[in-house]
Amino acid sequence: MSFPPPFYRWRPHPWHGLEIGPKPPSVVHAFIEITPYDLVKYETDKVTGYLRVDRPQRSSSQPPALYGFIPRTYCGHRVASLQPKAEKPDHDPLDICVICERPISRGEVLLNARVVGGLPMIDHGEADDKIIAVLDNDYVWAGVKDITELPDVLIERIRHYFSTYKLVPGEESMVSIEHIYGREHAEEVVLAAMADYQEEYGD
User: Fold this and answer.
1) Is the model's pTM score more than 0.90?
2) Cα(167)–Cα(162) distance, rounded to whole angstroms?
3) Contacts of 159 (CB under 8 A, 6+ apart)
4) DSSP H helical segments within the chain, as ranges?
5) What whole-number distance in Å separates Cα of residue 2 and Cα of residue 94?
6) What is the pLDDT of residues 47-65, one digit of tens each?
7) CA 101 to chain CA mean position, Å
């Protein structure tokens, strides 16, 4: 039996088997692991590609946007070099938060995301950038070209979430986010993560 191309006879691994997107680094695919309705931290298992329960969220804070990663990206030495205060990369796919107007309440979905900016997060000394994007064909947010065009309170919520979601009362926070950056630098981070992936895993 023949199948029309492109066709996956078996489910592709979401990190390695999916394409990076239709027009990287400006429009990329985002594989969503967590929605704003989740109080559990889900994470794609690196071996099987299935969604694994990492941990329940310790606090009552909920993600303010869809959260996942960009396929075929890797945070290696190029990504880390873009953060002078980072001691090393986190060796994970590049994280992405996607803003959309309509509620999307399920994970393990793939969407087209338009990159508009990012947060230079450092977690225990590791570069752990969070790319900020909008749903590419969203009727409300699709026209946004840069993070400066988004409401300040929305960026504050995203920044606050990542600054506090691992916080343990009585312990010093090991997470820092000094500033936000715009589309131009965010695309540079995506390109660096693409190059790091190519070096680590090849075609």
Assistant:
1) yes
2) 9
3) 119, 177, 180
4) 77-81, 152-164, 183-201
5) 35
6) 999 999 988 877 777 889 9
7) 18
Closest alpha carbon to 129 in 166, 173, 162, 168? 162
Task: For domain 27-201, give the fold.
Answer: Inorganic Pyrophosphatase (3.90.80)
Tokens linked to 138: 């969203």
3-state secondary structure (DSSP) of residue 70:
coil
Q: Which two tokens stand for residue 23?
A: 């027009």
How far apart are the C-alpha atoms of 80 and 129, rounded to whole Å? 9
Dihedral pair phi/psi, residue 117, rounded to 5°: 170, -160
Residue at 130: amino acid letter: K
Reference 69, options 17, 124, 101, 29; nearest CA is: 29
Which amino acid belongs to residue 67? Y
For 78, other C-beta atoms within 10 Å of its C-beta total 20
Q: What is the pLDDT of residues 159-183, one digit of tens each?
A: 999 988 777 677 777 788 989 999 9
Continuous H helices in 8-151: 77-81
Reply yes or no: is the peptide bond before residue 25 cis, omega within 30 of 0: yes
